[in-house]
Design brief:
With 296 residues, the protein is α/β, with parallel strands linked by helices. The protein contains 10 helices and 14 strands. It folds into 2 domains: 164 residues, HAD superfamily/HAD-like (Rossmann fold), CATH 3.40.50.1000; 100 residues, Hypothetical Protein, Haloacid Dehalogenase-like Hydrolase, Chain: A, domain 2, CATH 3.30.1240.10.
């Protein structure tokens, strides 16, 4: 998720909306919130990955009011599970940018995978040109290079991938490290398979590595949230979505009510109905305190 090294430019450009600009009590009550859709990294967590205890407390309060909670993240499923376990209760989980959806019992409702021959071609191209590539299959990351960053998934050399790649083990996500400019691998995929993939940029919280992530063209947070609402029989109008990055905008387009935390990307603030005065989990707590007061 995107991270800003300084909050002051965003705070001055997107100050807390004046009382006349804030949603009215009537508008908030009309939504009758039934589902919270929460991004994790740099929304629930701060730039060091720490969760806000106040935000967790208020999420639990929402649960006691009968409001469902869904975590919606680019993280692998294990990374989403870690946060869900800390919150407790029945949590719906959307991982890999929307490629995988699971219900509150962990049952898989959706898994959008990439074509096996496309992946084989991309692996060949990366190998021939000695390019960095990450492929995720069944919660394991396969890499063409040694990567110093920590990972929530098991990491194996991509040379082992052919042994497991099958119709029963298809990848949900591939990534290309590109630093400050798009890599030739990304450009190859965009030119060759652009219409059969969805591309998004991922920047870590320290802003010291960048990935372009490619997934199934329908694997977007907004699509996943919409599909989850259908499964749960929840009207999207009754969803409150909270996020910080541009990948969260598709959630905002589905949800009836949307919130950008203070550290969010400028485009996210523009798309949201409400911007918080506080960043990260403190912003989530602020918004829940503000909104849940009207849900009694």
């Amino acid at each position: 998720m995107n991270n800003s090294s300084s909050l002051s430019p965003l705070s001055s450009r997107f100050p807390l909306k004046s009382p006349s600009d804030l949603p009215s009590t009537k508008e908030i009550q009309s939504h009758k919130a039934r589902l919270l859709a929460l991004d994790i990294d740099n929304t629930l967590t701060d730039y060091k990955g720490r969760l806000s205890e106040h935000a967790i407390e208020l999420i639990r309060k929402a649960q006691t009011k009968g409001i469902y909670v869904a975590l919606v993240s680019a993280r692998p499923s294990q990374g989403v599970d870690e946060v869900a376990d800390l919150i407790g209760g029945n949590i719906y989980k959307i991982s890999y940018l929307g490629a995988v959806i699971r219900d509150s019992l962990g049952n898989e409702l959706q898994r959008l995978t990439l074509d096996i021959e496309v992946i084989r071609d991309i692996i060949r191209f990366a190998d021939q040109n000695k390019l960095g590539l990450m492929v995720t299959i069944k919660e394991t990351e396969y890499h063409t290079y040694q990567d110093r960053r920590e990972s929530m998934t098991q990491r194996i050399a991509v040379s082992s991938l052919e042994n497991v790649l099958s119709l029963d083990a298809l990848p949900v996500l591939i990534g290309f490290k590109h630093d400050r400019s798009p890599s030739s691998l990304y450009e190859y995929c965009l030119k060759t398979y652009g219409k059969s993939m969805y591309f998004t940029e991922h920047i870590n919280s320290d802003n010291d590595y960048r990935f372009v992530l490619a997934s199934h063209p329908e694997a977007q947070k907004g699509n996943a949230l919409f599909n989850l609402c259908k499964y749960m029989c929840v009207d999207p109008f009754q969803v409150i979505a909270i996020g910080d990055s541009e990948s969260d905008i598709s959630m905002f387009q589905v949800a009836g009510f949307s919130v950008a935390v203070a550290n969010a990307h400028p485009n996210v603030h523009l798309a949201a109905k409400l911007s918080t005065p506080l960043p990260y989990g403190d912003g989530v707590a602020w918004s829940l305190q503000y909104l849940l007061d009207f849900c009694d």
